[in-house]
């Protein structure tokens, strides 16, 4: 169902006010401009006609920006299609690594550097436990999230971790299983302490001038938690899609855009209740822009036996488990966006939306109104 309000509307109405007040850089403005122009005449499109009833449909092009809430569905499903080829018949765990909000000023000052250190420290922590607790080489898929439900800055990393690893003799080593059959990975309290030590050590090296702030963060909560293992590979794939291509807020969470305010739905995890929040529209855009990732920054990363450099070993591991190995060249088996829509989104782009029996045929291409400008919002000169 189409949402009643969209992020693009907020940007269109209040983007200039936001630009005047906060003077964001060109990259931020281009991102906001792309979201505002998504699926509008300014990006061009095409006109189709049904070969049965003659119905005319005009479709405008997507911006394909990774921060756009309207451009994530097919990208998410295509990514999941690829990941289906990289599963093992073992339990999988979902782990989350968080940092205290006392470090937020460092993330504001050097977001790319801090996010890279966060990724590195999480993997070093996990790798240490694989080697010292399981005596094996493990792996994980890590996804960076930077937001809380209320759009505040809340950097944390979601990890999908296979339950086991490759031992020193090249044989798969399984995780521990209790007498009642419950799978067990690593103790989260120990993980939290090691993670805190590794990240703070790297922070002191990278930001010596922030020694006091880093030291003060030591006494705050460094929460690492893990959920129950997934019931099988299919549930892993389904769960991955919920976390890999999320943006800071979806259009369906927007409840109202009125006067100078934006109202949206959010979940307060302190009492696990769903609530509503109303923010000044410019403040809403400021919070959203906190979560625009640095240019070309990779927010989904694969480590250990799941990394791209270990594909050959991973395929051999799949064979040893009786699984069909993933193909060498995934481009040969990758589905088109139309196939993705039909299979996963229950939508056939070629079916006539009017008579439901005809096929839409391209009759005209719509030229973009203009080429993308360097920025789409006026800013007052000082």
What would a concise description of this structure say?
The protein is α+β, with helices and mostly antiparallel strands. It is 35% helix and 23% strand.
Give the helix/strand class.
alpha+beta
Q: Kindly report the CATH topology of the domain at 88-248 and 296-322.
A: Alpha-Beta Plaits
Assigned CATH class of the domain at 88-248 and 296-322: Alpha Beta
Q: Kindly report the average pLDDT value.
A: 88
Low-confidence stretches: none
Q: What is the global morphology?
A: globular
Q: What portion of residues belong to β-strands?
A: 15-25%
Largest sheet descriptor: 5 strands, antiparallel
Whole-angstrom Rg: 23 Å
| CATH architecture name of the domain at 88-248 and 296-322 | 2-Layer Sandwich
- Output the number of helix runs: 11
**What distance separates the N and C termini?**
44 Å
Count of DSSP E strands? 16
Strand order of the largest sheet: 11-3-6-5-15
What does this entry look like structurally?
This protein has 382 residues and is an alpha+beta fold. The protein has a domain at 88-248 and 296-322: Alpha-Beta Plaits (2-Layer Sandwich), CATH 3.30.70. The protein contains 11 helices and 16 strands. The chain has helices at residues 7-22, 26-37, 73-83, 104-109, 111-134, 188-206, 211-217, 233-244, 281-289, 311-320, 337-344, and strands at residues 45-50, 56-60, 92-98, 136-137, 139-147, 153-162, 164-167, 172-174, 176-177, 183-184, 224-226, 254-258, 261-268, 273-280, 300-304, 360-366. A 5-stranded antiparallel beta sheet has the order 11-3-6-5-15, sandwiched between helices. A 3-stranded antiparallel beta sheet has the order 2-1-16, with no helix packed on it. A 3-stranded antiparallel beta sheet has the order 4-7-8. It is globular and about 65 Å long. The chain starts with 6 loop residues before the first helix and ends in a 16-residue tail after the last strand.
